[in-house]
Amino acid sequence: MLSLPHPHPASTGPRHRKPLATTHHHRRRCTFTIAALILPGGGGTPRGSPPNGGKLILPGSSGGGGGGGRGGGLLPRTPPPTAPAQLYQPFHPPISPLPANFRNLDLTERLAVLRDRMGRWYEYAPLVSSLFREGFTPASIEEATGMSGVEQNRLIVASQVRDSLISDDFPEDLLHHFDSYGGPDLLYELRFLNARQRLKAARHTIARNLEAKGVRELARSMKDFPQRRGDEGWDAFDRHSAGDCLAYARFRLSREAIAKENRIPVLERSLDVVETESARARVELELERAIKKAAGVEVEEPEDDVNARPAVPVVRLMYGEISEASIVLLLPVVKETDGVEAVDLAPRRSKTDADLGIVEVDKGWARWAVLPGWAPVMAVADEAVVIELADGRVLPWRSADKERVLVVANRKRKEVVDEGIYVLEKGGKLVVERGNKLLEQGISQAAAEVVTVVRPPKDEQDVISGDEWD
Predict the structure, then answer these.
(1) Residue ranges of E strands in 324-436
(2) HSE of 322 in the Cβ direction (CA atoms, 13 Å)?
(3) What residues contact residue 407 under an 8 Å CB cut-off, 6+ apart?
(4) Quick one: CA torsion of 445, 451, 454, 460, rounded to 10 degrees?
(5) What are the extents of the domains in the chain?
(6) Are 282 and 251 in contact (CB under 8 A)?
(7) Domain 314-468 -> CATH class
(8) What ranges does the record give for the region Disordered, renumbered to this chain (predicted)?
(9) Ranked by mean pLDDT, which of 116-120, 183-187, 380-384 comes out on top?
């Protein structure tokens, strides 16, 4: 038998002491008798060890493998050794956005760089962002460096725009054009353009040596050009050309001039920046007509000009107008994707009780529009149908916006005449076209004639007059 002495009292937990009155106590040697001590191991049973699975058996316990009786006499087996611990991998912070020559500067030195504008502007611009991350505000940075909040924002945005220009399509020697102190003012104006537009605008800026005001005009014209689809002369200009976008913006501006002689200098400026041949021909034609008009020469207007435009009312609903109207109309609505068959299938009024305001229709329908009882709509209420268009820019007027509109049409009048505007189906969708264009295409019958166009309410009231139609 193997006898183990009780550990020394000093190495164990607290001892049970006798009362303080006792001055002497005897140290007693306590022993336990152990049947066997099996070291932890795996697999088979070592020679000379009992077949008990390597358990440490205390007196009073059962020698079986956790058999009957209370199992408190069995100590759990020591778990097998685990795999070697993985080495600690320290956290690596992301690479600092600061240039290498600024990364080791302390706070005082970084503030000094901004205060004295030491280095190129795009090199010390990231210092402003780093100060923001450390709790600085634009006001506190301005107090420490003298750099206003406007200049801080301009530096940050311009540096981001500059980084977006760095590519194989933009040589480095062109990029140096913006390294001067005025570079942030130029690049800041390109912030609203996408990556492709920025490249073209930056090249045009360098080629024309534009100042900040000119870059602003260029960027706005490029941003606005896609929104003018369908406007007068839009098809002649190339949307992928920065010069054409700017030329078209000036072309449109010339048509808004009140005095005829004021159109000439604007068109000349448009002709100065145009790039494609089709756009140049369109501007030259407009300039020739403007010169003749300014000289008092009578010029024959084309068919699609102001004098030939039909006057179809285009109205914008006002908030609360329907609830305040003395008469309202309930008209069936057809989506533009439903096709011309839906226009014919939409219900018609079969009976009206004017005293009680009860209206009966000849068939059921899912979508209806409630409109004020305007006189043009009231006159065709029995045959009226509403076509819902998702984008008002598909309509033939120059100042159309990207918004949903309702086109009220009269199904009783299908014969196309030169002065009217009609609803018909093209490519599986309902579209609105002028009568003279349909006659040129040999189309004499349409689905319905447009009575009025209704736009949704908004805070700013605007009216499209008859001469706004293309």
Answers:
(1) 328-335, 349-353, 358-361, 368-372, 384-389, 405-410, 421-426, 429-434
(2) 11
(3) 386, 387, 388, 389, 395, 423, 432, 450, 453, 454
(4) 120
(5) 1-9+28-60, 100-188, 314-468
(6) yes
(7) mainly beta
(8) 1-26, 41-83
(9) 183-187
**pTM over 0.85, yes/no:** no
Calpha distance 237→240 (Å, rounded): 9
pLDDT, tens digit, 9 for 90 and up, residues 376-424: 888 888 888 999 988 877 776 654 567 888 999 999 888 988 888 899 9
For residue 102, give the amino acid letter.
F
- Two structure tokens written together for 410: 């009269």
For 229-261, what is the HEC assignment? CCCCCHHHCCCCCHHHHHHHHHHHHHHCCCCHH
Burial zone of 123 (CB within 10 Å; 0-12 exposed, 13-18 middle, 19+ buried): middle
Q: Which amino acid is at 186?
A: L
Strand partners, 425: 430
Structure tokens at 328: 């309202």
Helix (H) / strand (E) containing 121:
helix 121-133
- Name the token pair of 224: 């606005």
- 59 vs 39: CA distance, rounded Å: 18
Which of the 8 DSSP states describes residue 6?
A: P
Give dist(CA 189, CA 120) in Å, integer.
19
Spatial distance between the Cα atoms of 328 and 465, rounded to a whole number of angstroms: 24
For the chain, how far is it from start to end, CA to CA, in angstroms?
114
Band (pLDDT 50/70/90 cuts) for residue 168 is: confident
Paired with 359 in beta bridges are 352
CA distances to 321, 363, 385, 408 from 381, in Å: 19, 16, 8, 10
Q: Would strands 358-361 and 349-353 be described as parallel, antiparallel, or unpaired?
A: antiparallel
